[in-house]
Amino acid sequence: MDSTAAVCSVCGATEEQQPLTWTVQSVRGRTALVCEACTRRHLRAMEAQLDEEHW
Ligand SMILES: [Zn+2]
User: What is the per-residue DSSP string for 32-54?
Assistant: First the structure.
């Protein structure tokens, strides 16, 4: 696995480098990348449900 590649932890999308539009979520001490599309899709859920049970 290429350590420089960015992989969305939600949909599995990959980019050679982490785009600036991607966000980094800290989930239970781990770092998880979330792509732009998934960030938008989950924004409502993230705001409504602040605990990160679904991550
Ligand atoms: Zn994604």
Answer: EEE-HHHHHHHHHHHHH--S-TT
Instruction: Say how many Å lie between the CA of residue 42 and the centre of ligand 1.
Output: 10
Pull the structure tokens for residue 4: 């420089």
The predicted-structure confidence for 26-36, as pLDDT tens digits, reads as follows: 878 888 899 99
Going from the Cα of 40 to the center of ligand 1, the distance in angstroms, rounded, reads 9
Q: How far is the CA of 6 from the centre of ligand 1 (A)?
A: 11
For residues 37-46, give the mean pLDDT.
Answer: 82
> What are the extents of the domains in the chain?
6-48
- CA of 52 from ligand 1 middle (Å) equals 16
